[in-house]
Predict the structure.
Amino acid sequence: MGVILQAFYWDCPQHENQEFEWWNFLKDKIPALSQAGFTALWLPPISKAAEQKSMGYDPYDYYDLGDFDQKGGVKTWFGNQAELTALIAEAHKHQINMYADMVLNHNSGGELELNLLDNISRYTKYNPASGKFPRNWECFHPCKYETTDAGDFMGMPDLCHRNPDVYTAFLEYGRWLLEDIGIDGFRFDFVKGYGAWMVRAIQEMRGLKGNSQFKPFGVGECWDSDRNIYDWLAEVNTWSDNPIDAFDFPLRYRLKDLCMTYGFSLKTLTKGGTLLTDGLPGTAVTFVENHDVVQNDSIVRDKMLAYSFILTHEGYPCVFWKDYFNWNLALQNTPNGIAALIKVHEHYAGGSTSVLYVDDELYIIQRNGWGNQPGLIYVLNNSGQWKGTWVQTQWANTNFAPAAWWSNGSNAAPQQKQTNQYSWSDFWAPPRGYVVYIPQ
């Protein structure tokens, strides 16, 4: 399915010395990202927020992409519309899709006005300089269409999507992003805060690229337990002809335990409780870090174990910018980093997954292959020494080469393996490490 790069982190324009230039900064990296194997970029919210130097999760003017002098300046913290569309065009030239972060639950930066229903004043008066999607108290809870919904976010004015003007405005906004700006899909922020039907309506829209229709990709941030994620997916995808995915938060926390906890039982990786293990791998966007969890709950030990898992298993993996660039986990031109795992994912990690062996310290799976991806063998070792065992694969009389590996306790390269006429061979991994074997 490809590999997503989350192309931002909190306050990235400032930390990277790219204030108001982030779109240009990304554009220059597109050829290298394509060469590395990334197939999509997840962009931060692209609209003008309540303050110019904002990550965009407090939207003010949805149609100001950095061209109107309001909220402290003209450009957004990332750039302007022309620079954004140039970035998208460069990405498309290299067959990279672009996913925009959609913040539909709440707004910020409005003026104070009186709500005539309850006589309470709130910051719900919005007069955007773009002239598009002006709002007043009737667009927010409480209003005549609805008193409240699933919940607000940090006290910001909570939009009422049952107001026909709000509903229609977001459908038009989605169309504009798809057709006029060139976006290929959406990441929906804080989906627990409003009705799933709003997301479904946007996902069911048909964008036009030239004279051809296309369906946008979508993934929701339902930061919750597996049960609540399943319920949200069922609600948003019922009767939809363009089902949406969800981030597999339960898997992320399980992988955090793998990385951070010595003695973690690898049997846990096969148990239910995640989208991946409960039979929904086709709806799982898997990840190790994102801009939120990394703030206070970062994985700080043996993180490559987690990346090796999501880039060899089913699901749609998403790589975090800081892991790849700032924290030097890409390790390009070596077999020991994310870059090698991306190449394995794109060329070999196809088809369903078969668990060949698992105990507390050793975990071996086979990707069974599909189409032009022939499959692989993945070995994960959570012990303090080299460990392996004999397993029966689907390949008889086949040579296997180690294509990617890492260990926190050994620098030795794994040996090549060969299955016998009955498809058996012994596959090993170094201490507290992994190996990906590929058929030759």
Remarks:
- The mean pLDDT is 97.
